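User: I'll paste a sequence; please echo it back and then give the predicted structure.

Assistant: Echoing your sequence first, then the prediction.
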Amino acid sequence: MRRRLTVAGNDQLGAYRVLRLSDPNGSPPQPGQFSMLATVARWGAGEDERPHLPRAFSVARWQDGEAHYLLKDVGPGTRRLCQLRAGEEVWTLGPLGRGFTAPAEGQRAILVGGGVGIAPLAILQDTLMSQSGAQGCVALLGFRDGAHAQGGSLLRDARLASDDGAVGHHGLVTELLEQELQRTPQACVYACGPAPMLEATRAICAARGVSAQLALESGMACGFGACFGCVVATKDGGYVRVCVEGPVIDAARLERVDAHAGAPA
């Protein structure tokens, strides 16, 4: 059911913003689930204010009756959400989709994120650490530069990589993943980020026989499977709707990660 929620805050985090919506009566989301968001006021473009479609965002954190979402201004809809102030209202539909599943006994969780795609890994880390403590997971995050890398503070004790070398490892986050898998072969990898990062993660895990769960961010128009706008191809020749059968998909089901299925960098 679509609900009308009040903005509790909209905080700057480097090149991103963290939108906090007051939701004391909402259902706690599973890590990896998402919501469809649209502002109550001024949600449109052009002279006739033609409404934008709602935008899909992974829940980044669920804390003290608030749902947190990581935003990046990449177009008119996200720009409007980035402009929200405390007290304004947002239409919310969610939590939706299938989330991450826990690692098998004996597996260590490795979280691999890139850009705004780090969002669902934050709530996943919260959940894993509440169950098994600091030894329960490793977080590896990649960003294009120092301003974007400030988003890495959304997760605790993350190892960072940056394209320009401004922060952490100078290079790709998947290079950190390969190093980590050499130390921890008994692992389950959880990833969300740009499509090239997800495809590299899928290929690395497939080559090593490591299980991996990928949170895809294919463009969604409805969020509940009616429009078939977010489908991705599977290895068996079929298709899955990211909003219903995903957004978390077992990497072994995919031949590859297509360019339209990743998050903005």
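The chain has two domains: 3-96, 108-261. The radius of gyration is 18 Å.
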